Amino acid sequence: MPTPYGSHGGMAFGAEELRVLRRALALALHPSPVSAEDVQDCLRLAESLDEAAHEGARLRAFLLADLARYRAALPGTLTGYLPRLEEALASGYRPNPDDLAALRALRGNPAAAALLERCRVLAEQDVRTRLSGRALASVPQSRTRLLALPGGRAAEEPDRRSEPEPQPRQPAGAPRPDRPIPTPGEVFPPRRKPGPPPADPPQQLAAG
Question: What is the pLDDT of residue 87?
Answer without folding.
Answer: 94
